[in-house]
Amino acid sequence: MSGSASPGFTPTGTIASHGDRRRVVFATVIGTTVEWYDFFVYASAAGLVFSRLFFQPAGEQAAILLSFATVGVSFLFRPLGAFLAGHFGDKYGRRVVLVLTLIVMGGATTLIGVLPTYAQIGLGAPILLIVLRILQGISAGGEWGGAVLMAVEHAPRKKRGLFGAAPQIGVPLGLLLASGVMAVMAVIAPGDAFLEWGWRVPFLLSIVLIVIGYWVRRRVEESPVFAEIAERKEQTRLPIVQLFRRHTPLVVIAALVFAGNGAAGYMTTGGYIQNYATDPSGPVGLEAGPVLWAVTGSGFTWLASTFVAGWVSDKIGRRATYLVGWVVQLGGVLALFPLVNTGGVGGVFAGVAVLTVGLGFTYGPQAALYSELFPASVRFSGVSISYAIGAILGGAFAPTIAAALVQATGTTWAVTWYLAGMTAIGLVATLLLRDRSGIPLGPDHETEQAVSPIRGVSKA
C-alpha cells in the first residue's frame, strides 16, 4: 500500500467508508469542544471572578494581573504535554492519547469547581488553583496534535483542509459553549450570587461532557497512517530526539505561525475583553451578562470563518489562505478597541466578531498545514510541539501583557500595536514556508516528506 493512499485507506488496503470518516470528524469536533470548553471556562472566570476570590489580598490591579497570569501559566506546561503526547502518540498511537488528555482536562476542570477560596483557606486556594491549571495546560498540550492528525490522516487528499477544520471548529464551539453557560449562570445567579456559587456550575458541568467525549472517542478507529506504521513495526524509538535533530528550524517557524494567531485570539479566549468591558472604572463598564452574550455571538462568526477557511485552503492552498487571513486579521486588530470602546454591547460584539473572521482564516487551515509539514514518523511530535511553543509565544501571556500595557500607558493603542506586531510575525513566518498542500502523508513517502518546507532550504 502506498503512503499516498493511506489517508483514505485502512492498513488492510480497503477504502475507509464515509461512515468511518464521519465518526472521526464527529469525534474530533466533540472531543476538542469539550477540551476547549474546559479551557475557556477557566479563562472567563479568570477575567470575571478569580481576581476577587483567589488574589484579592494583592490589591485590585495586582490581583487582575495575577489572575490573568494563571491563564498564561498553563501554557508553560503545554510543551511538557506536547512532549509526552508526541512521544506516546508516535509510539503507541493517536487514539490512546486523545482519550487520556480528555480525562485529565475534564478532571482538573471539575475539581476547580469545588475549590475553596482565599477567604476560606488562605494561600492554599491560589496554589491549588495553579496546580489544577497546570494539569489543564499539560492536557491541552497533547490534545490538539492528536485530534488534528486523526482528522487529517483519515481525510481524502483533496479534502484535508476541510477535514482538518473539524478539530479547529472545536475551539470556537468551546468558546461559544463556555461563554453561553457563563452567561446563563449570570442570569440565574446575578450579582453576588454569581460570585458566591454561580461561577462554579460551568466547571462542575465538565463531568457530563467528559462522559460524552470519552464515549465518542473510544468508538473511533486509529489513524490509518499510524496503523500502517505500527503494522510494519516502524515506530520511531525516540521521536522527540529525531524531531529536534532534523527539524528544529521548521518547529520554530511553525510555532511563529500560530503565535501570530494566538496573541489576537486570546483577547477573547484568554478573558481579557471580558474583563476590560466589565471593569466598572473602565471606559465601557458593562454588566457581565451582556458581555458574555456578545462573546458567545462571536463564537458563531469564528466557527463559520474557521470552517470556510479550511474549505478554501483545499481550493487555493494553505499558504495563500493564510496570507489572506493575516490581512483580514490585521484589520480586525485595528478595529477591535475602537468598536469595543463605543461603550455598548453592540460595539463589543462588533469588535470581537470582526476580529474572529481574521482569526478563523489564520486558524482553519492550521491542522492541514501542520500535518503536511512533518514526516509521518515524527508528525505527532512535530505538530504538538510546534503548537505548544506557538501558544507560549503568542497566547500564553497576551491577556497579562494587554492588562499591563493599559495600566502603564492608560490607552488601548499600545495593545493594538502589540497585536499588530504579532500578526506581522505570523505573516513573515508564513512567507518563509512552501505550500505542501496534498503531499502524501503515509510512511512510504518519508523521503519526499523530509524535503524541507522552508523556502530556500533543500533538505531538513
From TrEMBL:
It is a multi-pass membrane protein. Residues 24-438 form the Major facilitator superfamily (MFS) profile domain. Keywords: Cell membrane, Membrane, Symport, Transmembrane, Transmembrane helix, Transport. One of its GO terms (molecular function) is symporter activity. Gene3D superfamilies: MFS general substrate transporter like domains. It comes from the Bacteria. The chain crosses the membrane at residues 24-50, 62-84, 96-115, 127-152, 173-191, 197-216, 250-273, 293-313, 320-339, 345-364, 385-406, 412-433. One of its GO terms (cellular component) is plasma membrane. Pfam families: MFS_1. It is found in: Cell membrane. May be a proton symporter involved in the uptake of osmolytes such as proline and glycine betaine. Belongs to the major facilitator superfamily. Metabolite:H+ Symporter (MHS) family (TC 2.A.1.6) family. This is Putative proline/betaine transporter. It comes from Microbacterium betulae.
